[in-house]
Amino acid sequence: MRVVASVWSERGWLGPMRWFGIGLGILLTAHGAYSADDRFIEGYTRALLDQEYRLSEAVVEVADGVVTVRAKDFGGIRTQELIRVLEGIPGVARVTVEGEDGPSAPMAVPGGAPAETSIPSPWLPRGLLFEPLHADPRWPHFALVYRRVLDSGLVKNGAAANVGGTVALYRSRPARSSQWEVGLQAGSFSLFDLSATSGSNDILNTDFSVALFYGYRSGKVSGLVRLAHQSSHLGDEFMQNTETPRIEVNHDRVDFKLSYDVLEWLRIYGGGGLLLRQSPDGLGVGTVQGGIELTSLTTYWSGRLRPVAYADMQLHERTGWSYGQSVMAGVQFENLRLDGRAIQLLVEHYTGSFPDGQFFTQKTQWIGVGLHFYF
């Protein structure tokens, strides 16, 4: 689960978040289309817990649409995933999951679509077992970012346009406490010069990446292994205006990541990788990565905004093991969601080697602001 540095509560740190859900059954009843009583909700809940989550020993209580699930051991099941699924049952107003450590506060999805309530198919499952690395400059996602570069002769006012995502193709639950999945990941990362002398927003470089991945989760621990390819392409205007020769920069690599949800609001991760094939020849093959993510348990503006903060650190042998750091902070719009994902408005600061194409030998530093959607 995503990190939250909710140290801004007036009544103590990390206080439980108050949440008021709007059940689908209530909405449909208001429109005269559907009616569901507590017995239906209880039966549906028990069926889901037994068949999908193997929690036949869990205690289920339903009162006026409020569902309470109690169990001594949830077998590593992510409680927030369970809450989202149960909230999608017609007629449910709110869900509370209680274990040995007490109730788990649900993270609201105001205005969001109800979760899938049928027994999920193993093909094209919703969500991901390994959550995105938000501050990783090369994690495929949708983004539009303005950057003011502070320390580079390449560009002063730039814009980054990213398109991409991660899709799980097949997921299996071999045991109650663990799941694994395989899928595809792809993205493009383009850098534009907003103050080009040509008068147009010249494209400087575009990187393309594609990967086959294996994801795993057991309780608070998740992992990712990728076999990936990346290629870089200089912009035509940039080559023409600067007479910069194009260097074929591409590589195949294998990398792995491990993530641990320390608390409901705190996540840490780390890993490394190796280049299997690279161009030009002679590039260093080793990479090391680590980071931390914070996601506030408290929301603001009637539940619309959730503060978030992320930091990512990378070292690459091809740059002499120089240090690169990306830090982002901002808000997540809880009322603007698609498939459980929300749009984020983030300010960022980066220092280190350029992550773009053949410019990786150049040092840079920038500050920026942009919209991000991690799919």
Write the layout of secondary structure elements.
Blueprint: H1 24-30, H2 38-51, E1 59-63, E2 66-70, H3 79-87, E3 94-99, E4 102-104, E5 142-149, E6 157-175, E7 178-193, E8 202-218, E9 221-234, H4 236-242, E10 250-263, E11 266-279, E12 286-295, E13 305-316, E14 322-338, E15 341-353, E16 363-373
Parallel strand pairs: 2-3
Antiparallel strand pairs: 1-2, 3-4, 5-6, 5-16, 6-7, 7-8, 8-9, 9-10, 10-11, 11-12, 12-13, 13-14, 14-15, 15-16
**Chain-averaged pLDDT:** 79
Strand order of the largest sheet: 5-6-7-8-9-10-11-12-13-14-15-16
* Topology as a string of helices (H) and strands (E): HHEEHEEEEEEEHEEEEEEE
End-to-end separation in angstroms reads: 15 Å
Structural class: mainly beta
State the share of residues found in helices, binned by percent: under 10%
What general outline do the C-alpha atoms trace?
Answer: elongated
**What profile does the largest beta sheet have?**
12 strands, antiparallel, barrel
What is the CA-based Rg, rounded? 23 Å
Beta strands, count: 16
Low-pLDDT parts are 1-35, 105-119
User: Approximately how much beta-strand content do the residues carry?
Assistant: over 45%
> What oligomerization state is this entry in?
single chain
User: How many distinct helices?
Assistant: 4
